[in-house]
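2024-03-11 09:14:02 INFO queue: dequeued item Succinate-semialdehyde dehydrogenase, len=484
2024-03-11 09:14:02 INFO validating residues
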Amino acid sequence: MTVATQYKNQCYVNGKWVSSESGKTFAVTNPATGEHIADVPDMTEEEVLGAVKAAEDAFPAWSTTPPKARSDIIMKFYQLMMERTDELAKLITLENGKPLADAVTEHKYSASFMEWFAAEAMRTDGEVVTSTIPGLRNVVIRQPVGVVGIITPWNFPSAMITRKVGPALAAGCTCVVKAPSDTPLSAFALMEIAEQAGVPAGVINVISSRNSRMCAKVLCEHPVIKKISFTGSTGVGQQLAAQSASTLKKMSMELGGNAPFIVFEDADIDDAVKGAVIAKFRSSGQTCVCANRLYVHEKVYDEFTSKLADAVRAFVVGNGMDKGVTHGPLIHERAVAKVKEHVEDAVAKGAKVLVGGKPGKGNFFEPTVLVDVPVEAVVSKDETFGPLAPCFKFSSEEEVLKLANDTEYGLAGYFYSRDIGRVWRVAEALKAGMVCANSGVLSQATIPFGGIDQSGQGVEGSKMGVHEYMVTKLIAMGGLGTKY
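2024-03-11 09:14:37 INFO prediction written
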């Protein structure tokens, strides 16, 4: 059975599997092998508008569905996802390239958002607010914002969808999801599960199109869409915000990052190396919270960089489907070119290559560790989004905090220290929406995931995530004076 027949390769609109009426399609390929996986619909503007209309029509019924009923459907969604873990993890690897073990981890992470928000659907409570006016009572309630436009990236083809769709469903919103052009098949597979879980027609609609700009423009400018949720680059996020300004949409945006990873002289070096391997090289460096700049104290610089290089030499790079592979390809040749550019720029300015440093065949690039990287290197300012660990040397806490905060971004930050006073000081001083001390892992469904400054606005996940899809309403009731 071929992938094209094993997995859904049509869009899902108003409870139906549809192709583009134009008959146009575009190809999805395996980034590890270049193999053709499937052809998916290249939808037109009119068809995107049809998806918006389907979500609009479904909103009145879904928004008034009792929270317990919504919760039950979302929990069924979670259970069905877990039953198909092996199958859907393989699909992630096929279209994204990440090793199968990482794909399994993503799938379970993706499912965890549905489990979490199934419970949060029952907790969209309001509150009673004290009145200063005699005879008046104040009640605050939360209501679904309306139809939501969701635009997701390719690096987590499943998890970035559930992280947005889960809270939208819990809040009572309906959705139009623009699937990533490089990895749309996981989105379609989730819709098959949605259908089986009992999500009503029109509540979630998933579209694919090669013309991402057209889709984004429709969703951002359409008056029916009341909120945009986007994960992607800062530049695109700025464009979406500008396009949404005319309708003053509510927005959640998780954008670019330039995460520092700091190793202080009192750190457990072996633990710091393990954390750096995760924080820098997970998914071959293609995550928004990947460490982009590694700052190491001069007293432990040689030890840390030597051990990190040894760890990187032990990586097995290849097709994510092959047994033993730890790191897969980059998503496309443009990603490879960017890593190459960053390496060459750093080396030209005095950096040295400890391991890696060269592109491989196709979409592969050798996992790379650079030492003696100068602060004026491009990688100091620009997010690489690839398997490159540039190591910078520092001598004091004050110095490294200045270096770490010298960026317009503020998504994640990591550091290692065994001094509890320093842990609190540095955690509070780092300019980032998320700070991870003595660990290279932070992503969980239970946490508020989001950044500050040019890394975006709003949060996803946690008990706060569902409120991003709701509006607050005051009901002030008069004529309620107490009679004795």
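2024-03-11 09:14:37 INFO annotate: Confidence is low (pLDDT under 50) at residues 1-5.
2024-03-11 09:14:38 INFO item closed
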